[in-house]
Amino acid sequence: MEEYPPLASLSLTHVHYNPEDRISYLCAWLALVPQGLCVVYATLIWSNREIEIMLMFAGQLACEALNWCLKRFIKEERPREMHGKGYGMPSSHAQFVTFFSLTLTFFLLFRHSPHPTETHTPFTFFQRLVLSVLALAGAAAVASSRVYLNYHTPKQVLVGCSAGAIFAVVWFLVTTYLRRAGWIEWALETQLSRLFRVRDLVIQEDLVDSGWARWEERRKRRAFQVQGKKSS
């Protein structure tokens, strides 16, 4: 009888949890947040072609690369109760969501300054602050779930959060320098950026309102044309 090698599990979306514990079940869903955010990144980049989102995603990937290097340098095992594979120090989930939430917070509070239009009043600073707090709270929930599910020790999660926070600050400073030094404007003028229609509107415009304003303008033109036909 032919022998086959033992099968492996694709652990990207494979989560162990206690089916009799509702909190454990919720934590299992929280473990899928990084994958969901990657889908959000890809969707926004493809649909809006905003360079700010591309920069944020590039930083996210660089943060993940840093986590990969740190795990193989430290080589600390996961908790004994965990049946998964790979090193546990630092927690990649904690580092991922901390970088995302802090980068989003820096953008909302220090870089995003949308102007009001005829169809939209942008969020106030206080509303953007509330969104930032919610993002940070969500990141804390995801990080805590890794300890609850015994995928990581508290120390591994804290180190992951610290690495994500430090990298978020560094990345924000780097992108701020690129903007002030004119490198972003230069990149937007390259043939490749113009080929893929990359733009930089999200700093001063709302992503939803930019499309809504054009829709309202089109509706007004159509209504004006209909009225003109009726009057004639």
From TrEMBL:
Keywords: Endoplasmic reticulum, Hydrolase, Membrane, Transmembrane, Transmembrane helix. SMART domains: acidPPc (SM00014). InterPro entries: Dolichyldiphosphatase_PAP2, PAP2/HPO, PAP2/HPO_sf. GO terms for molecular function: dolichyldiphosphatase activity. Pathway: Protein modification; protein glycosylation. The keyword Nucleotide-binding does not apply. The keyword Cell membrane does not apply. CDD domains: PAP2_dolichyldiphosphatase. GO terms for biological process: lipid biosynthetic process; protein N-linked glycosylation. Its EC number is 3.6.1.43. Residues 53-172 form the Phosphatidic acid phosphatase type 2/haloperoxidase domain. It holds the Pfam family PAP2. It is an enzyme of class 3 (hydrolase). It comes from the Eukaryota. Required for efficient N-glycosylation. Necessary for maintaining optimal levels of dolichol-linked oligosaccharides. Hydrolyzes dolichyl pyrophosphate at a very high rate and dolichyl monophosphate at a much lower rate. Does not act on phosphatidate. This is Dolichyldiphosphatase. It comes from Trematosphaeria pertusa.
